[in-house]
Amino acid sequence: MEESFEVGLTVNGTHRTASVPARRLLSDLLRHDLGLTGTHVGCEHGVCGCCTVLLDGDPVRSCLMFAVTAAGHEVTTVEGLADEDGTPSPVQRAFRECHGLQCGFCTPGFLCTVTALLRETPRPTEDQVLEGISGNLCRCTGYQNIVKSVHRAADILAEES
Amino acid sequence: MKPPPFGYRAPATVTEALDALAAEPSGKVLAGGQSLIPLLNMRLAAPAELVDINRVAELDTLHVRDEGVRAGALARLARVERSAEAAAVQPLLGQALRHVAHPVIRNRGTVVGSLAHADPAAELPAVLAVLGGTVEAASARGRRTIRAAEFFRGPMEPALEPGELAVSAFFPASPPRTGTAFTETARRHGDYALAGVAAVVTLDEDLRVSAARAGYLGIAATPLVLDLTGAAGPHGDWRAAAAHVRERIDPETDIHAGAGYRRHLTGVLTERAFKSAAAEALRRAGE
Predict the structure, then answer these.
(1) ipTM for this model
(2) What is the mean pLDDT of the segment spanning B212-238?
(3) Does B2 contact A23 at a Cβ distance shorter than 8 Å?
(4) Interchain contact, A25 vs B78, CB within 8 Å
(5) What residue stretch is flagged as signal peptide (chain A) (predicted)?
(6) From the candidate CATH numbers 3.40.50.20, 2.102.10.10, 3.30.460.80, 3.30.465.10, the one assigned to the domain spanning B62-172
(7) Average pLDDT of the residues of chain B
(8) CA distance A102 to chain B (A)
(9) Whole-number pLDDT of residue B190
(10) B7-52 has which CATH code?
(11) Average pLDDT, stretch B140-159?
(12) Fold classification of B178-285 (topology level)
């Protein structure tokens, strides 16, 4: 019988606990143990970026971290980006407006990555946008509308601040 | 895929970590996990035990002194990349870190972890090697300092003994009138490079080249350091230095590039990096 560990962490502002083996990936904790299936799992070795979540505010690959290591930390998933009343965040609205998604599989990862990117660089240059999203793969859009969405999100954030 | 089962220890201090490694010498250290966890997920590695050092606060350090930059085992790549103090003392670190994987990976990955992984295609081993830096290793038996030239024994093979933990890495400061540059070529941005070079040029008081050293990644089993001072001459003939490098190296063919292409590319990157490093040295000499 594999040993279990009690993991407690804050997810989208709520304290959550689960009993998991040490090898439980953070991505699987979120999806299977906590039922937050917004975080998607693509490659499971850090290449595709679909599973990107915010760990204490910084974007990280949830498939390259064990749940036991995340204990005590704060995680924000795509479910936690919108306002409490359900209003989509500026980044989410920009992606909708600019058609920054098609099938939507990669979108949760992009939204988390871009949310952090714009917090650190509120008015990114084209190069900074490309570098910022370089670790996220999208097989539908050809990226043009995603890049547009990032600039549009920067506009919305500036307008609303 | 999912990782295979393993025993798990999460020590809170270096002493506890060393005790855990002494008790299970085949235990593997988990820091940022950006290289180790992919290996586990793909089941290319199956260690009996993981010693997770992420809670060892005393390893989460970045000390910048006049002599150089010392990164503790939990200093994340992004933290070192963004440190203006570290860049002022040793600019090559930040120049190379921008090429390490993607920004999101750099939020978790650590400097010391990248060195201990000892991938010959990785950037930081070449940086440590060309700068003549060191790795500090600790075990229940004591501590020792390992020079870069001895640290990289082979591909994925650092000179760490069972039970040893790499606690920090030291990158010496740039001397006066010294410029550095880092360049690499990868098929896709953020991928492992086909070849890359870290260049360091030092000028004398008459602005002649007094030292030119290059650290290469991707072209040998370990980071390759070449002294190009003689090949480049006092006036910095970087084309001649590049020709010399092409003769000296013996890259291998793999699915990504042939040996001939890698040889040619390494020459091109050498010339490019040294032109940039020499211009930077001249600028710093004028300050």
Answers:
(1) 0.95
(2) 97
(3) yes
(4) no
(5) none
(6) 3.30.465.10
(7) 96
(8) 23
(9) 80
(10) 3.30.43.10
(11) 97
(12) Enolase-like; domain 1 (3.30.390)
Residues of B in contact with A60 (CB under 8 A): 104, 107-108
Sorted by where each starts, the structural domains of chain A and their CATH numbers stand as: 4-80 (3.10.20.30), 90-160 (1.10.150.120)
| Reported confidence tier of residue B158, pLDDT bands at 50, 70, 90 | very high
pLDDT at B139 over 80: yes
High-pLDDT (> 70) share of chain A, %: 100
The predicted-structure confidence for A77-98, as pLDDT tens digits, reads as follows: 999 999 999 999 999 999 999 9
Instruction: Give the model confidence (pLDDT) of A115-142 as tens digits.
Output: 999 999 999 999 999 999 999 999 999 9
Q: Per-residue DSSP letters for chain B?
A: --PPP-EEE--SSHHHHHHHHHH-TT-EEESS-TTHHHHHHTTS---SEEEE-TT-GGG--EEEETTEEEEETT-BHHHHHH-HHHHHH-HHHHHHHTTSS-HHHHTT-BHHHHHHHT-TT-HHHHHHHHHT-EEEEEETTEEEEEEHHHHEEETTEES--TT-EEEEEEEEPPPTTEEEEEEEE-SSTTSPPSEEEEEEEEE-TTS-EEEEEEEEESSSSS-EEEE-HHHHTTTT-HHHHHHHHHHH------SS--HHHHHHHHHHHHHHHHHHHHHHHHHHHT-
Q: Which of B3, B42, B103 sits opposite A131 (nearest CB)?
A: B103
pLDDT at res. B188:
83
- Neighbouring-strand partners of residue B226: B214
